[in-house]
Amino acid sequence: MVGFKATDVPPTATVKFLGAGTAACIADLITFPLDTAKVRLQIQGESQGPVRATASAQYRGVMGTILTMVRTEGPRSLYNGLVAGLQRQMSFASVRIGLYDSVKQFYTKGSEHTSIGSRLLAGSTTGALAVAVAQPTDVVKVRFQAQARAGGGRRYQSTVNAYKTIAREEGFRGLWKGTSPNVARNAIVNCAELVTYDLIKDALLKANLMTGSCPPFSAWVPGTW
């Protein structure tokens, strides 16, 4: 662009979209074992009565869960569902964070003044849209994380097989199970994260405490997905 230095040119929507997805994938690679441990702890005792489940808990604590999985299923079990997890982050974070600016500009209709209402609408819109797009990958990721390799056969043999099996046995809608609560949750989370960031950034810029244009996707924090 004429009149802009290379460092002053704002990133395009495509750059934001790809940047948000790539950053989320890198974070997922690092934190995936923790996410797997979380899922195992959440579903523990699901098929047992409450008293029996408490007495025979296989996993105790985050580190205890990770160590137990490594010992009984091997280190690779910590990354069960990683492919679906990366697919989820690339589609989910790209929409949720990468399109926030573009949607905000749509709601403000090009106005220089951006109201809190417009920011909240943009945050809830991209949060809800991201879930609608990425829900099948989230379902497959959790199914993989939940299935144990030890003591029996595995229901899903690969990521593609998981998509096909769920669609065949539970119907196409089975890939979108849990969408409604997930939409509500992520619409709220997105508003809390991105709108808060946006307001703080504007306040800092007006107070001349920082300069430059920092796109919202740079505020992405691992562990909030």
From TrEMBL:
Record-level GO BP terms: transmembrane transport
Cited SUPFAM superfamilies: Mitochondrial carrier
Domain of life: Eukaryota
Residues forming coiled coils: none
Subcellular location: Membrane
Topological category with respect to the lipid bilayer: Multi-pass membrane protein
Keyword Translocase in record: no
Keywords on record: Membrane, Repeat, Transmembrane, Transmembrane helix, Transport
GO terms under cellular component: membrane
Keyword Transport: yes
Solcar repeat placement: 11-106, 114-203
Family: Belongs to the mitochondrial carrier (TC 2.A.29) family.
Protein name: Uncoupling protein 2
Organism name: Gorilla gorilla gorilla (Western lowland gorilla)
